[in-house]
From TrEMBL:
Transmembrane segments: none annotated. It comes from Saccharomonospora viridis (strain ATCC 15386 / DSM 43017 / JCM 3036 / CCUG 5913 / NBRC 12207 / NCIMB 9602 / P101). Belongs to the thymidylate kinase family. This is Thymidylate kinase. One of its GO terms (cellular component) is cytosol. SUPFAM superfamilies: P-loop containing nucleoside triphosphate hydrolases. Phosphorylation of dTMP to form dTDP in both de novo and salvage pathways of dTTP synthesis. One of its GO terms (biological process) is dUDP biosynthetic process. The gene is tmk. The keyword Nucleotide-binding applies. Gene3D superfamilies: P-loop containing nucleotide triphosphate hydrolases (3.40.50.300). Residues 7-203 form the Thymidylate kinase-like domain. GO terms for molecular function: ATP binding; dTMP kinase activity.
Length: 220
């Protein structure tokens, strides 16, 4: 059975870059690795409904905290067997976003903290009811909200297919989400969390990934 490792953080934190760097470092140590990104836009109808709603479609759907949360959860429910199969076939399965994203964003939207009812509800829905695998390790890529926003804007300019949605362009929501992420990490919600500095240089992050890969794979 492989290890399930999740990369979490704000939009624009650099999760994709971290996932790619960690994947390369793990493979250098001889680990077999596969990755998956949530939401699975273009692959799952629930994920596509999320994206459409966040860009103004489907009436007031995007305004419903629990409605959107269920769509995010159903996307992962549809990938549950794929995740389990990947864990059987690989040493490490890396996920870019997972259950904690749902908890963080919905709590932020409702102005709740880690001990609030929506975080508890997300866990009951996705872990207890839908039976999603519990992560072995969750990595919070922490960056200042302003830095994440600047990166998201720059990404949007470079890639027109990655236009920011209603959540990504809401700076106040992002700030509240960052606070909830910190609370989730501090309480080791669901599993062990590690906090990584997302503002470090490329070279420094590369060195950190080598060390982290060794701990995640060889130290398991």
């Amino acid at each position: 059975m492989g290890r399930l490792v999740v990369v979490e953080g704000l939009d624009g934190a650099g999760k994709r870059t971290l996932t790619e760097s960690l994947t390369a470092a793990l493979r250098e140590h001889g680990a077999t690795v596969t990755t998956m990104t949530f939401p699975r836009y273009g692959r799952d109808v629930h994920a596509d409904l999320v994206r459409e709603a966040l860009h103004g479609a489907h009436g007031d759907l995007a305004e419903s905290v629990y409605g959107m949360a269920v769509l995010y959860a159903l996307d992962r429910r549809g990938a549950r067997d794929d995740i389990r199969r990947a864990l059987d076939e690989h040493d490490v399965v890396l996920l870019d976003r997972y259950v904690a994203s749902n908890a963080a964003y919905q709590a932020a939207r409702l102005r709740q903290g880690v001990d609030g009812p929506v975080v508890r509800w997300v866990r009951e829905l996705e872990i207890d009811r839908f039976g999603l695998p519990v992560p072995d390790t969750q990595l919070l890529l922490r960056v200042p909200v302003e830095v994440a926003a600047e990166r998201a804007v720059a990404r949007e300019r470079q890639d027109t297919s990655r236009t920011r949605d209603a959540f990504e362009s809401d700076d106040a929501l992002q700030a509240r989400c960052a606070r909830v992420y910190d609370e989730l990490a501090a309480s080791h919600w669901l599993s062990e969390w590690r906090v990584l500095d997302g503002t470090r240089s490329v070279a420094a992050n590369r060195e950190a990934m080598v060390v982290l890969a060794k701990e995640l794979y060889l130290g398991k």
